[in-house]
């Protein structure tokens, strides 16, 4: 829980457009974390051993714990958390429906690559928000301890069966493509978020060139993650 | 985490039969909590609203948090937690396979009635264990805040559609029957647990009459829970 009573950037009161954009972003992240939690729990059902099930359960619980602060910040901004989250339900649910893992390894890669991409994207956007909201967002994106677990298990799987590398590399590309499709669709529908990114009278924004650079950074980090797993991006 | 270095009852070293029985019981409870966590997460997917999903997620996380201390105690008793839990996988998995909820309400009743029954049973058995193990078990059975949520939602569902009461009453009976079937099967297979309950040279046990009284208490508490939900037992 943050103690700060001032919800705005600096000491200025929040203008309504800005407030709506912050609520949108927090709602998107919160619903994303809730659906990531559900997905991790479903992955646990595919875990080959009880140790793996426990490890996935611990990650899922860490993911769920992040939700609390996002919800508090939404309430501070005068929003109904469930309503703010509900706006992004369709986009995330579509993403998950189109990328249902067919086995344990696809689930692991999705958790690592999907969460990593989402976290990079939110961190980029958080730079355009007030300090309090930014801090809540950054905290909600903390590592849930999954990197080491996923890297170790995926690499071990590939060592046992080399064909897995080709299948998982294709899977990583599909995840990236589907994430971009849904992100673009959501951005096009959410005016407040788009105008936040475009900037305002007293706020810097992203011009097309800056958007392009952001996209380059996101794809570079995606490629780094794939290579950590021993996969071609 | 308990600080106590002495794993046994009082200061006496543990005899091997006793240790095996304690490991069995802790393994059963731990696997039961892990599978309860998985089942709650699957219920969340059926939740009609985002608020309901969040409420179920919070219960599931509380359930998962209990696992930590059970696991620590298993390690203190010289057991491999995953191995101890694995002995009970089939029994619990069969129970869940035979009682897969067909909707949100059946899931709620199962979480409440099933967890309640299991908790009552473990509390009864914990009375025959050393103080340290007993304390870990009692703590692991703490309320996860689900009672009020389940009672409110099931009662509201029945108020909207009276036919639901008949269907859920039958469902409660089926849960009880299936739980007894699996519990008896597991008890018959686990010699250490059975001999713990039968008592030893320097430990009191349960004779047939005491077992009968325990069974009566368990069914009475089950009937109380059903009536809290507004259902016939």
Automatic annotation (TrEMBL), chains A, B:
Residues of the Ferritin-like domain: 17-200
Pfam families on file: MiaE_2 (PF13794)
InterPro entries according to UniProt: Ferritin-like, Ferritin-like_SF, Ferritin_actino
Top-level taxon: Bacteria
Designated name of the protein: Hydroxylase
Natural source organism: Nocardioides seonyuensis
């Amino acid at each position: 829980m943050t103690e700060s009573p001032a919800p705005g950037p600096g000491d200025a009161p929040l203008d309504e457009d800005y407030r709506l954009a912050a609520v949108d972003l927090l709602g998107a992240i919160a619903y994303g974390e809730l659906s990531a939690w559900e997905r991790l729990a479903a992955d646990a059902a595919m875990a080959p051993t009880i140790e793996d099930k426990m490890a996935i359960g611990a990650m899922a619980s860490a993911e769920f714990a992040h939700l609390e602060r996002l919800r508090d910040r939404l309430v501070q901004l005068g929003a109904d958390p469930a309503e703010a989250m509900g706006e992004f339900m369709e986009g995330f649910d579509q993403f998950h429906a189109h990328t249902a893992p067919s086995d344990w390894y696809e689930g692991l890669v999705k958790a690592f690559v999907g969460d990593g991409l989402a976290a990079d994207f939110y961190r980029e956007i958080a730079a355009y928000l007030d300090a309090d909201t930014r801090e809540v967002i950054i905290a909600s994106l903390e590592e849930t301890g999954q990197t080491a677990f996923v890297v170790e298990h995926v690499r071990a799987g590939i060592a046992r069966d080399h064909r897995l590398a080709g299948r998982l590399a294709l899977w990583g590309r599909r995840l990236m493509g589907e994430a971009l499709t849904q992100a673009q669709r959501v951005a096009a529908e959410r005016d407040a978020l788009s105008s936040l990114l475009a900037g305002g009278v007293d706020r810097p924004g992203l011009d097309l060139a800056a958007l392009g650079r952001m996209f380059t950074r996101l794809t570079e980090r995606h490629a780094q993650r794939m290579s950590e797993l021993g996969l071609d991006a």
